[in-house]
Predict the 3D structure of the following.
Amino acid sequence: MFPSVLKHSPEIVPFEKLIHETLCVMKCKQKTLSKIRVENIEEKTRADFETKKPYDFLQLCYYQTGDHQNAANAAFTNLVYNSDHEAMRENLISIWLFQKLMKIL
């Protein structure tokens, strides 16, 4: 297993383990499968990754587990690639305001 480079809440551990498992499977496939094999990836899936859509879901997961800093980081990354995503912009502002409020209280 790969070493954890992030400090996060215990609720995120299963997601991290899934990512590490996926990376291991990908590495194995690269070593054992023919180089000429073509993976059929739907265009919508490819487009989602190119536009950083997974960060939309990731910020929600982080927010729901109380990891507001990583939620803000994921929202920001999504906004870098999708500057017209108004809901994400509002989420980032809400997270930022929540963090400021918690420091005051």
